Amino acid sequence: MFRSKLGVLATLVAVSAALTAACTTTTGGTASPSTAGSSPATGSPSADPEVPKVSAPLDAGKYVADTCALVPKDVLTSLGMPETGTFQAKGDTLFTKAGPTCAWKIRGQGTGVLVSLGTGSRDEGAGGLAGIYRGYASKTYIRFLEHAPDVDGYPAVYWGPLDERPMGSCGIGVGIADDLTFDVYAQGYQGADDSCGAAAQVASSVIKTLKGA
Length: 213
Description:
Elements: H1 2-23, H2 73-78, E1 86-88, E2 101-106, E3 111-117, H3 119-123, H4 128-137, E4 142-143, E5 156-160, E6 170-177, E7 180-187, H5 192-211
Antiparallel strand pairs: 1-2, 2-3, 3-7, 4-5, 5-6, 6-7
């Protein structure tokens, strides 16, 4: 058990390190492991009735090579972020392995946001919210809320390897197809409300971009 916790902690540290490196890289609730049943790690959407379905899929193909364009400049400005982010096609940490990412960081403050498009997870047969729910079942991840609110009508979950909200960091995954999500990780804020609020704000702006709004 002790070794297992050390492994999860190492993953979390790697995620934070990736955000910092790339830029040089709502909500209360009790964190709880999911009791959702697992499903085979295939490209087919999960049959688990707990996994929310996406009724109006969005096409994110044009942003695979330009993930930084998913977040409008006015949203970045409102968060105090630089307008220019750092793109990474694929990394080796929890969020960057999922697919192409873009990260923004406020210089000298340790505050930043990272957006990851989960095309890599999809290609490996672990895409969509079903992939995250399988992570719950295997106790690889936890979710911060049993029922997170949708983001502009798209199903979402607050999740991560550990509940880091008390330290000012929060991750949210949003399903934009049954086999595809994007994730937002906000780091270096003043607790749960600020970090999850920033993550949700960025997530909402990504949905608007994908809709062409």
